[in-house]
Amino acid sequence: MVSKRIQEMPFSSIRKLTPFANQAKKEGKSVYHLNIGAPDVVTPKAFFQAIKEADVDVLSYSPSQGIPELLEANAQYFQKIGLNFTRDDLVITNGGSEALLFSLLATTDVGDQVLTCEPFYTNYKTFFHEVGVSPTTFPTDVKEGFALPAREVIEKAITEKTKAILISNPGNPTGAVYSKEEVRLLGDIAKDHDLFILADEVYREFIYDGKEFTSFASFEDLADRVIVLDSISKRFSACGARIGCTATKNKAMQEALVKLATGRLACPYLEQVGAVALYQLPDDYFDQVREEYTLRRNCIEAELAKIPGVVTSHSTGAFYIIADLPVEDAEDFARFMLTDFQDQGETVMMAPAAGFYQNTQVGKSQVRLAYVLESEKIARACQLIGLALEEYKKR
To answer: What confidence score (pLDDT) does residue 359 get?
Structure first.
C-alpha cells in the first residue's frame, strides 16, 4: 500500500482531465489547452545560446546554493526592481515549486497550518500534504474581483497552529493584483500574529491596465518574516528549465534553506547558465510580452462576455481568469467537452476550479482558464465553450 499521505493527496486540477484529453486526441480531435499556464511565447534564444557556448569538460555538481553567476544575476534583477536582496540572501531552486517546498519545510512543523485565500493555486495542496500541514483559508469572491476581504474576515481564519501566510500576487488562479494597501494589510496581520509571509511573486511582470506591483519584500519592517518565491518559468517562458529561487533577509531562514538545498545536492548546471543569459535581456523584453498578454486578456474577456450566463472577474495580472459557468458541476462539463463534444473536430480542455478551493463546493461551477494561446485561438476556444454549453444543457 502507498502511504496515507499519498492516498489523501488530490490530483492537480490542472492535469486531472489529461487522460480524457489524450483520448480525445487519439480520436482525432484538436484540443485547445486553456487548462495550464504554459506560455506559448517563444523562449528567448539567449537561453539556448548560452548553453551551447558553455565551455565545460566535466558536468559536475554545481554549488547547492546556486552558481555564483546566477546568484549575482538574480540579485541584480531584484535590486533593479527596488528589492534589496544580495546573492547571500538567495538560494537557487528547481523551479518555484521547490522554492515553495523548501519554504514550507523551513517555517512549519507537521500539524501546523498555513493561511491563504480561496481560491488558491491548486498545487499548494500537494505541498501541504507533502510536508504535513493544512491550509486555513479566508474567502475572496469573483463578483468582487477577488479582492481581499476585511481584516476581521482574514483574522477569523487564524488559529494557534497558523505559522505562515502564503499568497500569490499577482494571483493564480484569479488574475487579481493586490494594491499596496492590501499587501500592507496582510503584512500588518503577519506582524500582529507573528507569522511568516511566503510571497509567491512569480507573475510580477504580468500586470496590466497601468496597475503597479507591490512586493512584500518592499516593506523594511517585514524583512525578518518574508520569503519571496520566484521563478524564470513564466517570466521568460522557460517552464521546462525548472529554475527558481528563494529570497529572504532572515538569516536563520536563509541558513535553513541552504541546508535543505545541500540535501538535494544541486540544481542543473546548464539550465543555470542559460538562466544567467535571460536576466541579461533588455528591459523592453517584458514590455513586448505584457503587450501580447494584454491583447489575449482583452480577447478572452470579450469572448466570454458573449456567452449567456458566464460570469467572470476582470483579470489584471498573471494570465488566468476564473469563469463561473451556468452549470452545476464544471468538472463534469469540462469532461463532457473532451469526451462527448466537438465542433469541426475541435474542443477545449479547462481546469475545474473546485480543486483551487479548500471548500470544493464553493467553486463547483467555476473553471480556471489560462490565456496563454494566440488571440485567434482563444477566440475559437471560447466559441467552442459557448457551443458546448448549449449542447450540454440539452443533454
So the answer is: 80
